[in-house]
Design goal:
The complex is a heterotrimer of chains A (251), B (328) and C (260). Chain A has 251 residues and is of the alpha/beta class. Chain A contains 10 helices and 10 strands. Chain A has a 6-stranded mixed beta sheet, with helices on both faces. A 4-stranded antiparallel beta sheet of chain A has the order 2-1-4-5, with helices on one face. The N and C termini of chain A lie far apart (39 Å). With 328 residues, chain B is α/β, with parallel strands linked by helices. Chain B contains 9 helices and 7 strands, in the order H-E-E-E-E-E-E-E-H-H-H-H-H-H-H-H. In chain B, helix 3 crosses helix 5, helix 5 packs antiparallel against helix 6 and helix 8 crosses helix 9. Chain B is elongated and about 90 Å long. In chain B, 31% of the residues are buried. Chain C starts with a helix and ends with a helix. In chain C, helix 4 runs parallel beside helix 8 and helix 6 packs across helix 8. Chain C has 260 residues and is mainly alpha-helical. Chain C has one domain. The chains are: A alpha/beta (251), B alpha/beta (328), C mainly alpha (260).
């Protein structure tokens, strides 16, 4: 089972963000979608989680067509998808432990004891054991991201969607987060979809990398293939060369 | 923590609802005991509105629930809710009247023996009390005042002008009218005083206002009986007799002196009007309410006064003309 | 030339469409929220907290306003009622205006500022920091989790707060009449009672129910519609308060026309 997007189109008002984006994420792999800010990466991720509906095209997650699901089915599906938000999106009014336990509370058969055990487990996984009773405002950026990750993995999802997991972090913390992403994939066997514009991070965590350019998947390949590819736009993005990147668009 | 919050919410909710419920009950005037429905029919209800209080011997015993004109259009049915334990007198009627000068009307359950005056409407249905609405106070007093002043003026002028027997007869009548006007003036003074008390006396309770109104109504009744009673008959007889004399007198004048004819005619017209007034007073259903209800009558009095003034001015200028008649 | 002539019509058309669109969005949100009320297991545990926040926490400010309104009403009533009108009408005026108008409307307007802004800012912040999305990904219905408990708390608690405010306002007016106006308790209470109808209290309750729904509803709607960071939160908070105040006043007139 995997994530499959076909010809997904989405516009916000006059602005066409996705213009027929197609992609397949294989079971168990971690795929990184890279692209400059504002290219629609987060929008893409929200489509996968069912937070946005495409104007056209199909989105299959675990063989379910996400846009066609009813409320109840969507809730069922979301329990299998963990979503790590760009700024963690922790609930300010709750402690870290409460945040992590949020997704578990409504699952049938989970009592307070079992939730507490699972929360401790998840916090241990992201090395936040000592901070369970802190509030989000008392955490650093990296700690917040890790807490967000713990919250996403608490219901034991099969899919993890990361929205810019390393943006705004120092290189050391970035590495810590990247290792966590890898750990999720290796230890928990989840299928990962990482949205990032940080190529270093993408190379480190991804099995395959896709460049989102002008609303479409411009290039998809393993990190090695990306390094050696001749595509001008991809090279422009990877090397951080605007002339090369935007040049093609102008042409 | 959570428990405390729930307790707090519960406390505020209970307090709020209690404030609403008990406040309403308190403002409404306490818990109501058992209530029973009471109905009355009247030809008119004046300014009575639903929600007005129902009183019995000065005590609030209920409220007016509904007012509706009967399908036949002949009467108005007033529905009231009153205390169940209330024992209503045998000969009870419902008097609809203002509670005070501020125009709040009330329905008062009265013994009809005490209040003979208003025409109670006997509605042919069991359990419906006869009802009657009183005229508005302010209109009543204003009219009385006007007429009384006119009559007083007339009587004063006549006292100056006539000295002989004929004049004496006339004066008798006027004196009777004077008695009448004194009575009126007294009532008016009473009323004025009461109203002033009402307006100034902020400490007076509603019951006192009611009592004042009741006293005022009784005063009117006295006046009414004055008009209908023996005094009035004597007065009217006196008046009629003197008018007859006066008429003969004026006829005589008309035959003898040419230049006096105009003056005589004026006097004639004047006395005809006064006679009209007296006849109206003399009429069997001539209750005071009717007198005041008839604006033509009041106007007549005013006109009569104006013509009298003309006549009297003439008498003052040429007293000789008139004095010759006295010798005659 | 033709373009110039058409421009005002286009502007009016745009405004109308925008208005209709936002009304439609609001309608959709509130009808969905009504459907979400079925998820009692989601909003029920949150209701007490919201009732405390919306209702209990608003009691002090509501009572403060009501106290001074009562005092001012009593003083101004006695100033206005001179000559022929008896002084017990001060009681009538204070009671009637507090129950029918000032209690519900002033409390509604003040709570539009306090509660509406609070809700809008909170939900707006949650929206722009993706907490609302996070709720959804954790399999929560944001309407059931955020909107339903807040609106229910508003609808349930506003009448309570208003009833307390009315009571305190009348008490303050009474106290003022005794202390500053040389009136007696008997007089004031007579004035209070003379035109009192129990329906007045129901009227106040109905009004405040609707105001509670409006204030919290405007807060929720504007909050969830927030776009664009801290500035967006500020904008939507302002919008929530202004919209709530305007609708309260319109609704006030509407109820007066329909129910009185």
């Amino acid at each position: 089972m995997s994530i499959r997007l076909q010809e997904v189109c989405k516009a916000f008002g006059p602005k066409q963000v996705l213009k027929g984006f197609s992609l397949e994420v294989r079971d168990g792999e971690t795929l990184a979608i890279v692209g400059p800010s504002g290219s629609g990466k987060s929008v893409l991720l929200k489509h996968v989680a069912g937070l946005l509906r495409p104007d056209s095209g199909s989105i299959l997650v675990d063989a379910y067509s996400v846009p066609d699901l009813g409320r109840k089915e969507l809730i069922q599906l979301r329990r299998r998808i963990g979503y790590v938000f760009q700024f963690a999106a922790l609930f300010d009014s709750m402690t870290v432990a409460e945040n992590v336990g949020m997704g578990l509370r409504r699952m049938p058969g989970w009592d307070a004891q079992r939730i507490a055990a699972r929360v401790a487990e998840c916090l241990a996984l992201v090395d936040l054991n000592g901070l369970a009773d802190r509030y989000p405002a008392q955490l650093s950026g990296g700690q917040r991201k890790r807490a967000g990750l713990a919250r996403a993995i608490a219901p034991s999802p099969k899919f993890l969607l990361y929205d810019e997991p390393t943006t705004g972090l120092d290189p050391v913390t970035t590495t810590v987060i990247d290792r966590l992403v890898l750990r999720m994939s290796d230890e928990l066997g989840v299928t990962g979809l990482v949205v990032t514009h940080d190529m270093t991070s993408a190379y480190r965590v991804a099995d395959r990398i896709t460049l989102l350019h002008d609303g479409r998947a411009r290039f998809t390949g393993t990190p090695d293939e990306v390094r050696t590819a001749g595509d001008e736009v991809l090279r422009g993005f990877v090397e951080g060369n605007p002339d090369l990147y935007f040049g093609s668009r102008r042409r | 923590m959570d428990r405390r919050r729930e307790v707090l919410v519960g406390l505020v909710v209970v307090l709020g609802i209690a404030a609403g419920v008990f406040g309403s009950i308190w403002l409404k005037g306490g818990w109501r005991g058992g209530q029973t429905e009471l109905r009355t029919a009247a030809t008119s209800v004046g300014a009575l509105v639903p929600g007005a209080v129902v009183k019995f011997r000065g005590v609030t015993v209920g409220s007016v629930e509904g007012i509706e004109v009967l399908p036949s259009g002949e009467a108005v049915m007033v529905e009231m809710r009153v205390l169940e334990e209330l024992v209503i007198p045998q000969n009870a009627g419902v008097l609809l009247a203002p509670e005070s000068v501020f125009g709040e009307w009330q329905a008062e359950i009265v013994d009809r023996a005490e209040f003979g005056l208003p025409p109670f409407l006997d509605y042919p249905e069991a359990g419906v009390l006869p009802g009657a609405a009183l005229p508005d106070f302010s209109r009543l007093t204003a009219s009385i005042d006007q007429i009384a002043r006119n009559l007083t003026n007339i009587s004063e002028r006549f006292e100056i002008a006539f000295t002989d027997e004929t004049a004496q007869n006339l004066k008798n009548m006027i004196d009777n009218m004077g008695v009448l006007s004194d009575g009126l003036a007294e009532i008016i003074a009473q009323q004025t005083e009461r109203f002033e008390q009402l307006a100034e006396g902020v400490d007076e309770s509603a019951q006192e206002l009611g009592a004042a109104a009741r006293a005022a109504r009784i005063s009117f009744e006295h006046f009414d009986s004055l008009l209908l009673g023996a005094d009035a008959e004597t007065m009217v007889a006196d008046a009629s007799a003197s008018l007859r004399n006066l008429r003969e007198l004026t006829e005589g004048i008309g035959g003898s002196l040419e230049d006096l004819r105009a003056a005589a005619q004026r006097a004639d017209a004047t006395f005809a009007r006064v006679e009209g007034l007296v006849v109206a007073l003399e009429a069997p259903d001539g209750s005071f309410g009717r007198l005041l209800g008839d604006p033509a009558l009041a106007d007549g009095a005013v006109e009569a006064l104006a013509e009298f003034r003309g006549l009297l001015a003439d008498i003052k200028e040429n007293p000789g003309r008139y004095l010759t008649f006295s010798i005659f | 030339m033709a373009e110039l002539l058409l421009r005002p019509f286009a502007a009016i058309g745009n405004l109308t469409l925008a208005g209709l669109e936002s009304m439609g969005r609001a309608w959709r949100m509130f009808s969905s929220a009504a459907v979400s009320m079925r998820s009692t297991d989601v909003w029920m545990p949150l209701l007490a907290a919201q009732m405390a926040r919306v209702g209990v926490a608003s009691v002090p400010i509501a009572l403060f306003i009501a106290t001074f309104t009562g005092i001012v009403m009593a003083l101004q009533a006695s100033y206005s009622l001179t000559g022929a009108i008896p002084s017990y009408f001060v009681g009538t005026l204070v009671g009637k205006t507090m129950i029918l108008e000032l209690g519900p409307v002033l409390t509604g307007l003040v709570l539009a500022g306090r509660v509406g802004a609070n809700i809008s800012a909170e939900l707006g912040t949650m929206r722009v920091t993706e907490q609302v999305d996070a709720l959804e990904t954790l399999a929560y219905d944001p309407l059931a989790y955020l909107v339903v408990p807040r609106m229910l708390a508003g609808i349930l608690m506003f009448p309570v707060v208003v009833l307390l405010a009315i009571s305190i306002g009348i008490a303050a007016g009474w106290f003022t009449a005794l202390q500053l106006l040389d009136m007696s308790s008997v007089e004031f209470v007579k004035g209070l009672r003379i035109y009192f109808a129990p329906w007045d209290v129901w009227f106040a309750v109905i009004k405040s129910l609707s105001f509670g729904a409006i204030v919290t509803g405007a807060g929720c709607y504007c909050g969830l519609q927030t776009e664009g960071g801290a500035e967006g939160v500020g904008r939507s908070t302002t919008r929530a308060v202004v919209a709530a105040c305007m609708i309260i006043l319109c609704l006030d007139a509407f109820w007066a026309a329909v129910l009185l």
